[in-house]
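Lab meeting minutes (informal)
Scribe: AK
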Amino acid sequence: MTTPVNSRRWTNWGRNQESVAEVLTPGTVDEVSAQVNHATQSGRRIKVVGSGHSFTAIAVADDQRMFLHRLNQLVSVDGPLVTVQAGMLLSTLNTVLAEHGLAMPNLGDIDAQTVSGAISTGTHGTGAAYSTLASCVEAVTMVTAGGKVERFTADAPEFPAVRLGLGALGVLVDVTLRCVPTFTLLADERPMRLPDVLAGIDEWNADFDHVEFFWYPYTDRTSLKRNRKVAANDRPLSAFRGWLDDDFLSNTLWQGVCKVGQKVPATVPALSAMAAHALSARTYTGRSDQVFCSPRRVRFTEMEYEIPRAALPEVLHALNRILDELPFRVQFPVEVRFTGPDDVWLSHGYGRDSAYVAVHQFLGSPYEPYFRAFEAVCAGLGGRPHWGKLHYRDAESLRSAYPRFDDFLAVRDRLDPGRVFTNDYLTRVLG
């Protein structure tokens, strides 16, 4: 088969997924509709790609790859309801919202994703009273198979599916988000022993708005982060301290530490202990999105699992055993976050209080035995893999994890009967 002249090679942020596909760059909804209609009529497939921050093959295109970066504008602001085009980056969204005295109620720790990519894969932050970003969606406009432009609001039977659709239902072209007034967070960040964190985590989840921690392998040390809403931004982080902690220590120096550990694996436990003590305690205030989000320049591969919150100690205990049995060393800390239940059908947190446990490995280091062993533990406890993070599950095993799995498939059959928007990953996880 002849490769189209406008085909391009694409690689994701984690550099573990790539493909060559014909590139589509629509600048209007009409252009999206026309391109989808042409694909439907000609038996072709389209895969929409955001900013490439998924580690799974969810965005890998084998025919046509559609970028929505030209659809990146603010559409409307109606009180707390803000409609933006789907290709807008979260970093841009945060700036636009702040200009209107608004904010997202919660965010993850990076803001490089597109709005459509973030909600479609289940991107989330931390906080017992919050869930995925998809839970903030009040309406979407989507181009479905055949080029039909459809608007879905809360009263539509498909709404619990299209809020987090894995890119399997159509092309999102705009999203309406329920936002909140701009708010300030007080951040309390400190090193702490893992047993002490586990002893206090239930109390902190009740007392703070947002709680997470990083556990350093081969040690009993963690970095605990707790955020609380406050009235005034009266303790801003100095520019030097922000650069030292978030730029130099967490990126520049960390990159060097990982490279040393990669070349000399025997040094990893000592390096992990050193890293656990490098970041000292700090307390500061800031605009919510600036506290939530941090730069991430050290590249890695990641798997993240949602588990019932009560299962967290068991999973961490199993991880200790897994680390000891691996034929290689793990260089990255384990990240733990928390969310509350929601009613989005393919949300990892559907119907229950959740802990999220994320395992990482430095770019270029072996990871599969680590990730598979971790997945076996989480799956056995009813865990659900993050759609944008590496996992090895298929439709048969996922059906039992998601009570509304077949309801989602029924919506897919209606909106994309010819599977215009599928790829190998979606065939694996949805059937």
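Next up, CB showed the second protein from the same session:
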Amino acid sequence: MPRKKRPEGTRAPNGTSSIYLGADGKWHGRVTMGVKDDGKPDRRHVKRATEKEVIDAVRALERERDSGNVRKAGQRWKVEAWLKHWVENIAAPSVRYKAASAYRTAVYHHLIPGLGAHWMDRVEPDHFEKLYGKILATGRKAGTAHQVHRTARTAFGEAHRRGIITRNVVALAKPPRVEEDEVEPFEVEEIERLMTAALSRRNGVRFVLALALGTRQGESIGLKWKRLNESTKTLTIARGLQRRTWRHGCSDPHACGAKYHKVKPCKETCKRHSRKPCPPPCPPDCTSHARWCPGRHGGGLVEVDVKSRAGRRGLALPDELFDLLIAHKEAQCKEREIAGTEWHEDGWMFAQPNGKPLDPRVDHREWKALLVETKTREARLHDARHTAATVLLLLGVPDRAVMGFMGWSNTAMLTRYQHLTASVRREVAGRLGKHLWRPPAVIENTSAPMPRPKWTDTQRQAVNVLAQVMPDRWNPVE
């Protein structure tokens, strides 16, 4: 039905939408969405081929305005452009280095290649769910897809808060389920074997610290002698050591790393990437391989603040551990004399033979060799922190004291890091068995015949079940 023509000499009320046929043969619509930052009306324009199409577009803008979810005026963003702007200019300056690195991996390796060509206001939840499926199809774990989901949800959430989009579609997408592996802390026998073998190695006290005090890897290798108070036998955890990725300092990062670009996928018989999926070939505009750049910067071993404010803490050392640190200090003094002028005096508690700090990768290889030497099951170095937290649980240390000792800011970490060991489970099972299946008390009376034992219904039923399973150890009762 054609629209009614407005009588001559009359005008539409202020703010009313208008639709008209332009001189270019296209239908145009204009909708007032609000007021711009400079105070002028925010008048949006749409152009379509037919009148019906422009009416639908105008009505869509009016619904958007009436609901209060108005997209900010200005140029529309594509997913690729927004993600690059968000990760480099918004996220990276406001988060820690490792968090920014995780964001960049999710953005440049997964989100942009998979969804970068979409408009921000046109992408849908199922686009992300299909992307998660593709990630899993390449052999990567569900945790990788979950990291991509969290990154996208944060980036699109920021776009929603800034009015670039009217809703955060990533919050509606369903990521794959992640099955977290239960950490098994070391048993007392395993701890003793690891400590004994560690003390026979150079800088082995570093692993004793992790098992006894639960220090993180970066905290341990980042310790300096000035943070050890020998009079009070306390150790201050304030800084950590971290390896960072180098960044290009040249004008053309792509050409700088051209020699190291991966142009072909790995062969099916590839043995170089046996522990993880083979990486894909470099993109056409690859700017990686900064470690070979002559002007590289920002990488290598960097001393950083601890993970959180709660992580900055003082630890009282057991006398035995304090004595081990003093013995280690004396051994390091002898190394300093041998190194002579080659020694770098930076005060590191655990250092290379020339005084330079330990590399986290070398430290990790040393831990793996220690596990092999002691014939201990495969475990992460961070499992030593879980072990220390569990020991505090077994000792009955109050939760508030455990949080301060481990450097946690909330009680949620208690359930994440404290576990029941196999020996504790066995002890609980033994106590439970003695309580539920203990034999009835027998009354000793030499003058009267011994009465028959009186079993409760629960005991009688349990014993009869045991008699069926283990007839050589249990007899049925009536």
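CB comment: The two ends are 91 Å apart (CA to CA).
No objections, moving on.
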